[in-house]
Amino acid sequence: MLTSLYIKNYALIDELNVSFNNGLSIITGETGAGKSILLGGLSLVLGKRADLSQVKTADQKCIIEAVFDISNYELQALFQTLDLDYEVHTIIRREILPSGKSRAFINDTPVNLESLASLSSYLIDIHSQHQTQQLTQDDYQFNVIDALADNKEYLQEFSKRLLEYKKLQKDLDELKVSKAELIKEYDYNLFLSNELNEINLEKINLEELEAQYEELNNVEVIGEKLSSAKSILSSESLGVSDQINTVKQELSKITSFGKTYETLRERITSIGIEIDDILTELDDLEENLSSDPEALERVSNTLQIINNLFQKHSVKEIEDLKEIKNDLQSKINNTESLDASIQLKEEAILKQNEKLNEIAIKIHKKRKKVIPVFVSKLEAILSELGMPNAKFKVELETLAKFTKKGKDNLQFLFMANKGSSFNELKKSASGGELSRIMLAIKSILAEYIQLPSIMFDEIDTGVSGEISNKMGEIMKKMSCKMQVFTITHLPQIAAKGDAHYKVFKTDIDNTTHTQLKKLEEEERILEIAQMLGGLNVTDSALAHAKQLLN
Q: What residue ranges carry the coiled-coil annotation (predicted)?
């Protein structure tokens, strides 16, 4: 409930500080006294965008501050979501600076207008002609029926599962798109992969292969050079081997003359041994050397394939080809495994669909059960409000698809007079009828859920007599369970309030100011008497005012 409201430097208000209690609070005042200014200031607290033109004195800050007792609203989770400190007595403050900049605070924490509006929608409901039009909107009609049906928990579970369902569908669509794209590349990737698999990259040593090719391709030259090398080393008289033996013999003749000569002989002996080994290896190489055109062609083809692959894939190393082969295999595997992934998603969607249908059926049944109760209560109240022939029908139709409200289509149909036919509410009800219907619905809702504080802005426009008296009774009954404000011009309604506030203007130093005052008992009698008979109060008007108050 709203416990206090402070307004400074706003429109015609210099400074105003007023406290409120629970129950039914009446606000009266002459036309043009500034009741709309009061509502405008309160709207700023609820998240309406600020306008510098609303500031009374342009070089001073405008402040609107409201204090709410939220102990009965169970808003701890919302405060946590908005990252705010929860306080039973929550303070909302709006400031409009001389620069035109606007700031908002909840319990001294700066917030944006979105967060402010999220919270304020739970705190106070200003019921104006504009809001009456909400009654014709689908979301509001669903909210009314679901409040009576106590569908809150089912709807929360349904909403959560619907988000999961939509995500699964999105994932499935993406998988199908990926599959379509991969299928286009699948054959080509498979061809490239097979081409790389055929060459058996794991067993290829490029250096050895190139060396083998050079050897096979130059057999004749190698044989010729091997023979020449042998001739140089082993020919009689002029061969290197014979020459080394001759040197060794000469050095042997002088070894007894010193250690140096002995060492030289040993060294030349070692060279002779190495030369003999080389001659033996040359013999082996020459003996095993043979021409193999088939092997040469096979190696040549392998090298050609590898070079072609290097060129095709723009790489230079066997390791790069191996990496490309693995990547291609991964793409192929992904394409082949997508069907399994798609099947899993489809199965998950099917299960979620079944669960959503189960919850939707429960929601539908509870709605269907409560609709006759709602219609009966609504028609009874409307009869009291001067609409005895008004008939209501709520059509509930099951849809083939899911919506955020379940699987139903809901429509409020209205018939104001006998002999007419049911039609959509927005087409068949006048503005005055919509106001009374909205009052009736709000009074019914108050029996089922904790509504925010509500302010009726001249909801009694166009009614009088017994009907206005019934409207007052309905608002009085609502105020037993919630805080109700009503701005009214009717004394029958004003007399039913637990508290009475008057909006009035005063002229100070040639400047008009709007003020709000809580009326004491005698002041209240006088105000209601003036509402009954005008400014010139008669004894009969005073007596009538006292009678209404009693």
A: 165-226
Q: How far apart are the first and last CA of the chain?
A: 27
What are 389-411's pLDDT values in tens digits? 999 999 999 999 999 999 999 99
At residue 181, what are phi and psi to the nearest 5 degrees? Answer: -70, -40
Q: What type of residue sits at position 78?
A: L
Residue among 357, 406, 500 at smallest CA distance from 159: 406
Burial 501-527 (b: 16+ CB within 10 A, else e): bbbeeeeeeeeebbbbeebeeeebbbb
Handedness of CA 445, 446, 452, 454 (dihedral sign): positive
- How many whole angstroms separate alpha carbon 298 and alpha carbon 490? 110
Q: How far, CA to CA in Å, does 521 sit from each of 388, 495, 549?
A: 36, 11, 10
Q: How many helices (H) and strands (E) does the chain have?
A: 18, 15
What strand order describes the sheet that includes 102-106?
A: 13-19, 2-10, 62-69, 89-96, 102-106, 109-111
Q: Which domains does the chain have, with CATH numbers?
A: 1-123+452-519 (3.40.50.300), 179-336 (no CATH)
- On whether the CB atoms of residues 124 and 453 are closer than 8 A, the answer is yes
Instruction: Name the one residue in this structure whose structure tokens are 């090298």.
Output: 303
**Are 472 and 4 in contact, with CB atoms under 8 Å apart?**
no
DSSP state of 290: -
Tokens of residue 366, six digits = 């509870």
Three-class secondary structure of residue 375 per DSSP: helix
Distance CA 216, CA 290 (A): 9
Contact 424, 415 (CB under 8 A): no
Maximum CA extent, the chain:
166
525 near 542, Cβ under 8 Å? yes
